Amino acid sequence: MADGNDTQAGDGRTNPNGTQDEGGRPGPSGARAGGGRTGAGGAPGGGGRTEAGGVAGRGGQGGPDGFFDRLDPDMCVVTAVAGGDRSGCLVGFASQCSIRPPRFAVWLSKANHTYRVARAAQCLAVHLITRDQRGLAERFGGETGDEVDKFAGLAWREGHGGAAVLEDAAAWFVGTILHRTDGGDHVGFVLDPVQWGEGHDGPLLRLSDAVTIDAGHPVD
Ligand SMILES: Cc1cc2nc3c(=O)[nH]c(=O)nc-3n(C[C@H](O)[C@H](O)[C@H](O)COP(=O)(O)O)c2cc1C
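A: This is the predicted complex of the input protein with flavin mononucleotide.
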């Protein structure tokens, strides 16, 4: 485990979403439910033909889902601790957002128990999990802290600032919260990594592996 602010994160990761699947995949359940979800979906026919032969502009049928639905990000489990509460949820909306200094942003749904805890937290822990850890994804993405203790029977320990670090994660970091920004039905948390580690080997769990999980706290 390293500690401090002196590392250069992000080498080789400056082209997010460089690997893409065939597309046609539904978005994250709960986080990006349904079509026309961007609010850009007005009357069809508002766009014009681009030179590349696509349809551009506002109000095309289905909105920008043709873009969003092609994304297949690695999934994270984000945990938050504050005021004696502990929470965590599965997150698909997450990415590195600065190289120097290293920064990472996660987006939490305002509907989630995790968001309510994160609002009062000083830092968040972000974990990558592997494809063979689907059980963890189901626990954190398919249950809500409003009803269950997701940490019961789970191997975790206290990290920087009291953060809840999952022992079996493939890779993780604790980041102090620098900014919160309202993105609509999700709020972005920009994180400054201060503590990190690696563990479990194997291919990472991606959205396409988790999309069949019914969100414990759907947005709609
Ligand atoms: C595939 C998938 C992707 C998700 N992506 C996000 C996300 O990016 N942000 C978020 O806040 N919730 C996301 N969720 C929803 C939460 O993980 C889920 O509603 C969880 O049960 C909330 O738990 P909580 O109420 O204890 O916080 C996703 C769920 C699934 C299944």
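The helical segments are 65-68, 113-118, 134-142, 207-210. The first helix runs from residue 65 to 68.
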